[in-house]
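Please check this record.
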Amino acid sequence: MIISRLLPGLLLSVGGVFAPIASQAETVPPPDKVLAAMLRATQYYHETVAVNGGYVYFYSEDLSRRLGEGVALPDQVWVQAPGTPRVGIAYVEAYLATGKQPFLSAAQGVAGALLHGQLATGGWTNSISFTNQDDRAGRYRDGRGRQKGKDFSTLDDGITQGALQFLIRLDAATNFENATLREAIDFALTATLRAQFPNGAFPQGWDDQLAVPDTDVSLRASLPEYDWRTEGRIKEYWDLYNLNDNIAGHVVDTLRLADLTYGREDCREALRKLGEFLILAQLPAPQPAWAQQYRYDMRPAWARKFEPPAVASVESGDVIEALMKIALHLEDADFLAPVPAALDYLKAAELEPRRLARFYELGSNRPLYMSRRGDVYSLTYDDSDLPSHYGWKTTSPVERLRNRYKRIIGGETTYSSLFEKKPSITDAAEIIASLDAQGRWITIADSSRLIGDNKFSEGERVISSEVFAENLEILAATYRAAEDLR
């Protein structure tokens, strides 16, 4: 988190960033040993692994293969998590814990990569290329990309939000002294707010052609009155009201952080408008949850050919959590109103204890899947032969969310205790011991850590940006704890 010596009294941490939690009774490694490991790991990752300050998801042990969501070109880095911003946040955590320049230099390298890759439309896409000879290079603000390159700023998978969260944290960690950094943040935040629809919804992303629908901003979600299986598809689904891939939660975390850091009333108002849209978007009983995306008439819509109009369990869980965060931040319990019915519905929809289908059919509430033959997808209720590229079933969040809801209505309003993940600093000694002579944490590839279609083989030795970031943050928390025990 951004500690109180920078912004007294504010809780700035959101998903995945840690605060020190050790008690006086805990045994932790000595701070000099922890710091030495942090410096060695950072030196390797920043000086050897980074490309122009940025990162991808996975590397082969000899760094000859680099994978994001696909094979990365030699001069290409990934913005989408767990890529460049994820590593950058770990560097900021390490710097805040220790005050050591190498961590700040590494974080500034990440900022340089992201500022280069900021699109002319203000946000980011999933990757950044550092040569305009690459046809995947975008139309970047700094003019060094392709003038006719991609210029679609995306909120999908937390891409623009993740970049912004890192840059805001770095700005606060450096006492707001970098005018170039602040200008890029302001430009991105303004562009993001401009993309918000009048009813409070957000699209999946935007270019300079995003149209504003002329619709009633108080319109509530309803079910299609046509055969949604064959009718009502919209090619540009990314321009619709979108919740797909947890857009709501990522936007809430970003706007909340911006409001806390800069006191931006426009971000606070955008949070309120988003919360009001989420209330409107709750589907009618007996399915009081949320779809992945909505047409401008507030009916659930198709996205990709394997994402039908349906109740979406993953996005519903994200919306419930987003509403709780908005209620706490704005100190407005009205945003909690949709939560009890949604939790009851999701609990009743579980396939088995703590398991949900990704999709439930509108009306019938039957678990809804897809079969695949070549590039042709077909709706089915049969889960015996599902395509492997998509998560058709998921862990139910009901127990976790209901617990948080009960704590909030019981009077608990400490954001960090409700929503921030805490590190297991008891793992610090093992993490230090597993760092090899070159300063690497080598990971054995397994299916739970691999993303996209181009993967390392099961059991292959790889270097993971996610593992690096998690380990560095754990060591940063451990260092704080060790210093406190001196």
Notes: The longest helix spans residues 465-484. The mean pLDDT is 91. Residues 27 and 244 are 43 Å apart (CA to CA).
